[in-house]
What does this fold into?
Amino acid sequence: MGALTGRNLLSLAELSPKEIAELLNLARDLKVGKLKPRTDKTLGLVFSKASTRTRVSFSTAMFQMGGNVLDLNASISQVGRGEPVQDTARVLSRYLDAIAVRTFAQADLETYAQYADVPVINALTDLYHPCQVLADLQTLQENFGDLKGLTLTYCGDGNNMAHSILLGCALTGVNCRIAAPEDFQPLPEVVEQAKALRIDPNSEITITPDPQAAATGADALYTDVWASMGQEDEADDRLPRFTPYQINDNLMKLANPQAIVLHCLPAHREEEITESVMEGPQSRIWDQAENRLHAQKALLVSLLGLL
Ligand code: CP
Ligand code: NVA
It folds into this structure.
């Protein structure tokens, strides 16, 4: 039984700096095979949006430990026909040992957590994507060692990724700069929350419309799609607004020469990131995708109390 056993993960803000550090250490030990936890438990995936990495990394993590997974996307369960979250959460809790939910409103996820009596994991909402950021921090740590004092610059939409990056950086001492068009900046309440959670009150949190200034001297450049799931019909209108925020060879020249490039994926090449940067020597995007497996396994081990 650890400090996270039986808990939910709805936002990174629920984790203490020590808990995040322990999750990252556990993810590292799992990656190198130092620990080989076993389980006979069952994870349910209740996804109302598409997913490759989150679905497969959580599933593989459970299978590698001997556990089971039920993929319950909305179209094959009664969720798609409107069965209330309150009922679904209580029923699933009688069968499953943990539930990962990918949905639109954070409020729906919170309702799952309120009514379920097993851990509920945020597998992405419109507001946050905490599981992704655990893998991102693991990737930064692999490349730079100590996270404290690094500078991560995120260019693009002030979306779920930007929100979780702000919180994850604050809780690990990483300076965080978000460059986004004026109308697409992160929610002020999330920025304020990140500021309040900083482990180092002097660490930087900058929200700016200027991608060049934000990229200058950064240790990591990070981007995500310009139109998230559910915003597909805005994609064409957004394109000209976001073009200055593309991560390309010119922006890379402003960053630290040792800087790494991250993208949560899926990517739209030549929109938010060029092919040359994605496939270039500073890209750690494929390691980052692999680390979803290790970070998600660390999370499951902790929430299910498997060590
Ligand atoms: N990055 C990420 O969460 O990818 P999926 O949408 O494929 O799960
Ligand atoms: N912001 C993206 C992240 C995908 C992993 C989305 O919500 O679609």
Q: What stands out?
A: DSSP finds twelve helices and nine strands in the chain. The chain has a mean pLDDT of 97.
